[in-house]
User: Fold Putative RNA polymerase sigma factor FecI from Pseudomonas reidholzensis.
Amino acid sequence: MDVDHKSRSLLIDRWFRSEYRWLRTRVVKDVGCPHSAEDIAAETFAQLLTLRDLLSVRAPRALLGTIARRLMYEGWRRRDLEKAYRESLANQEEGYHPSPEEQALVIEALLTVDRLLDGLSSKAKTAFLLHQLDGLTYAEIAAELAVSPSRVQQYMVQAFKHIYQATTHP
Assistant:
């Protein structure tokens, strides 16, 4: 084991011993469930293992809180997407029942698209989704969003650029 790896391991161990209880308590206030808070706090520390420059962190609570908040938001986003998907399934034809595996694949695809579009304005996201999923023209999207068709075109350029950058520079 090299010195840097050993130092990182000791640092994470020290933070875990000193900050885990604080983090779990903080997260349970936001999520309302002690079991979910345990999962998020544990995953927060697991994600520390992937960070490169841990030895220079001066405010571990700020870092831990940021990682935990991101995990909470991802959980809430996933829950909301799953709910919307299940609602759309409920409105489908009676004979259509995707398998649990198909449902899981669709939810993962939705989460991937959501992550790719993260950072765009809500109108740019909506324009992209209306065009790509619903097949609406720029004029139809413009009417829906109460903007000009040229503005829709700008939203689409932003979306494609954003997705390209997200997929080529992860």
About this structure: The two ends are 29 Å apart (CA to CA). The chain has seven helices and no strands. The mean pLDDT is 86.
